[in-house]
Amino acid sequence: MSQVRVHNFSISLDGFGTGEGQALETPFGHAGERLHEWLIGTQFFHAGDQLAGGTLGADNAFAAQHNPGIGAEIMGAGKFGPPGWQDDPDWKGWWGPNPPYHTPTFVLTHRPRPSIEMEGGTTFHFLDATPTETLAQVREVIGDADIRIGGGATVVRDFLAEGLVDYMHVAVVPIVLGRGVRLWDGLESLEDTYNIEPVTTSSGTTHLTFTKKR
Amino acid sequence: MSQVRVHNFSISLDGFGTGEGQALETPFGHAGERLHEWLIGTQFFHAGDQLAGGTLGADNAFAAQHNPGIGAEIMGAGKFGPPGWQDDPDWKGWWGPNPPYHTPTFVLTHRPRPSIEMEGGTTFHFLDATPTETLAQVREVIGDADIRIGGGATVVRDFLAEGLVDYMHVAVVPIVLGRGVRLWDGLESLEDTYNIEPVTTSSGTTHLTFTKKR
Ligand SMILES: NC(=O)c1ccc[n+]([C@@H]2O[C@H](COP(=O)([O-])OP(=O)(O)OC[C@H]3O[C@@H](n4cnc5c(N)ncnc54)[C@H](OP(=O)(O)O)[C@@H]3O)[C@@H](O)[C@H]2O)c1
Ligand SMILES: NC(=O)c1ccc[n+]([C@@H]2O[C@H](COP(=O)([O-])OP(=O)(O)OC[C@H]3O[C@@H](n4cnc5c(N)ncnc54)[C@H](OP(=O)(O)O)[C@@H]3O)[C@@H](O)[C@H]2O)c1
């Protein structure tokens, strides 16, 4: 059976996956790019841009697990666009004509719209469905490949709370955001169902892997 | 000038320094001993009990910084006893006749009582004062030695919020408690005033050191 995986999900020490005040100019609110500096530095992040370079150390090893084996991404309405994107019929995501997904990408929203085919293999589908229903529908489309839960925090938390995530990689960044959307709420005793292994890299990032117990 | 230090302060991934339901039988509420297993395993924790042994690795290196240079501890009413201890005139703390402090120990409480001299150099003093006033009073008693803020989360947070802590060691344990008292609340942008360095040890504990920027 295909695995459900979370990768490169970045939070602050106090557990926020995004800051307060998400808007067109500030996709992560007051967090800015601080949650993702560890990722922006890696070669993985610059794939396709040979001149840009990037590190090949431990941060890159974690980052590069993002794509292999993945046949689809599921993301929340809050990741797809700024608050109110549903009122803009022309909104096609943050990522330009060739988004970095290159697979069918399912956007959970209470206001679904027709699918949008982008360049490079990404097609956005819009779904109003529970996490379990969503996985069933995605598996009908993609078959046996793995499914990535791409965030934001609300969607990752919902899939975790229903016990639907097989593997999760969280990157903890040493900043205190104070406000935003929390990842850990409602997930008491997650350690009962996952083996949790933390490791800190030289960028000061603590990578946590969650592997489901059998 | 004497330094104000926090040591061995243990929190869950979601930032709780104690669980819900603190009581005489459950000093850490539903957290039990899980926040402190890393510490209980160290030789530092078994000091004085030669037979007990204990590890001498990285966890012990962090743990053993607890006492050297310290002339006093400041703790909250919630660390000194279970809810309601103020109504028991015979309550002398959790630690028996010879508490592990061996210095003057100042308990912040809105219901102060006369000082209690214990064995082994610990004397409990009870204070109703702001963090700044408290430090001034403690320095009058102990002079130039360093002062440890012993917890719980409420008291550590209050001293941090007023910018009074010079050094802090926090141990993050890979469990999700879900409820209790949070350390990080109200401490947005702590990284602006501290250099924060995380390192993970083989016990799965991530030790964070906070060193005040100059
Ligand atoms: N830290 C990271 O690594 C990371 C990763 C990805 C994204 N982000 C950031 O996280 C933020 C978004 O996170 P978020 O937690 O605010 O939002 P989110 O998880 O992206 O989306 C939540 C929203 O999706 C819709 N939705 C979720 N489940 C649904 C369901 N079962 N059925 C129908 N609709 C559903 C709802 O929106 P409606 O009710 O409006 O339809 C809900 O409010 C953005 O700032 C993004 O940039 C961070
Ligand atoms: N995780 C760790 O490493 C660690 C370390 C130590 C303790 N703990 C645990 O943490 C828990 C206690 O933490 P907590 O956050 O609940 O409480 P706490 O920080 O120990 O104490 C807070 C209480 O102290 C009194 N207080 C604080 N500041 C004061 C001031 N300026 N003036 C007068 N009174 C003041 C108030 O009590 P009143 O209003 O009742 O007087 C306040 O409610 C216990 O379960 C303990 O076992 C954990």
UniProtKB/TrEMBL annotation, chains A, B:
InterPro entries: DHFR-like_dom_sf (IPR024072), RibDG_C (IPR002734)
Residues annotated as domain Bacterial bifunctional deaminase-reductase C-terminal: 8-194
Ranges in a coiled coil: none
GO BP terms, alphabetized: riboflavin biosynthetic process
Pfam families: RibD_C
Alphabetized GO MF terms: 5-amino-6-(5-phosphoribosylamino)uracil reductase activity
Domain of life: Bacteria
Protein name: Dihydrofolate reductase
Species of provenance: Kribbella jiaozuonensis
